Amino acid sequence: DWTPASIVDDSVAAIRAQVGDKQVVCGLSGGVDSAVAAALVQRAVGDQLTCVFVDHGLLRAGEAEQVERDYVEATGVDLVVVDVADQFLDALAGVTDPETKRKIIGREFIRTFESAARGIVERAAAQGGDSGEVEFLVQGTLYPDVVESGGGEGAANIKSHHNVGGLPDDLQFALVEPLRTLFKDEVRAVGLELGLPPEIVWRQPFPGPGLGIRIIGEVTRDRLEILRAADAVARVELTAAGLDRDVWQFPVVLLADVRSVGVQGDGRTYGHPVVLRPVSSEDAMTADWSRLPYEVLETISTRITNEVREVNRVVLDITSKPPGTIEWE
Ligand code: XMP
């Protein structure tokens, strides 16, 4: 019988057996999966682990700060933050196809890790230590990710999740994937067992490609700024209404190539719509649209159109999964 404690014991033993005395690097995304995966690896091999937080410019408001502050405070883990927004946004310039975006983001992630890993080795050498090569990369891949990327039995390749399907052929690391057999609720239980703070354990899932797959159309700095502002309003208001744990995920999507006529302030505007996509789900394999109270939707709509100048229309997605996916791309 599996309990959170027995899952922790089993995976700690498995990680030790796999990794030995080698160095391990783990990308933190700010989400619960990578946080729990890293905490398991830290429990298993301690300071052989270095975490890397990639600020790829596709993050939501405040996310980088939250990882640097809350996670490091809770775990004491060794964290390197790299700012590679320019690199990612240059690579994404002109790209509109969702799968191409995912592949590019996945590729840039891995390149970033490889150079971060070289940096870690050099840093250790400069300090007179012998860290050896970094040989392992931790991924917070869950069971549903494996299934949806075609890795499970008889599953179709629905989307190539960057952390499963999008890895390059010449990957320089062996993967450590301690969550590969777990569902989200089990991951949360393991996170609590490991003593991670509730703000991290109960965080809503957020996709690795970030806001890059929530801008329908080309990803640009200006568009990211618009979406970040609208998303921040939706998150704050959902939390203020006490509904953030009931809602599985709340994507806000910018229809960047669509414009519609509106009237804001003194005059006619020709702005962009954002889509609110709150869903309820058990494991992201299926989902239903959340029946949020009208008052909460009203507050979000009013605030977004008042505070985000470029947005003049807020629409609600009332599609379940299937046939819609949770994300729009
Ligand atoms: P969909 O949109 O397929 O999403 O219903 C299912 C769950 O997976 C997340 N998602 C991703 N996570 N890399 C990730 O790490 C990705 O490329 C990716 N695409 C979707 C999505 O947010 C939802 O939780």
Automatic annotation (TrEMBL):
It catalyses: XMP + L-glutamine + ATP + H2O = GMP + L-glutamate + AMP + diphosphate + 2 H(+). One of its GO terms (cellular component) is cytosol. Its EC number is 6.3.5.2. It is an enzyme of class 6 (ligase). ATP binds at residues 29-35. It comes from the Bacteria. Residues 2-203 form the GMPS ATP-PPase domain. One of its GO terms (molecular function) is GMP synthase activity. Homodimer. This is GMP synthase [glutamine-hydrolyzing].
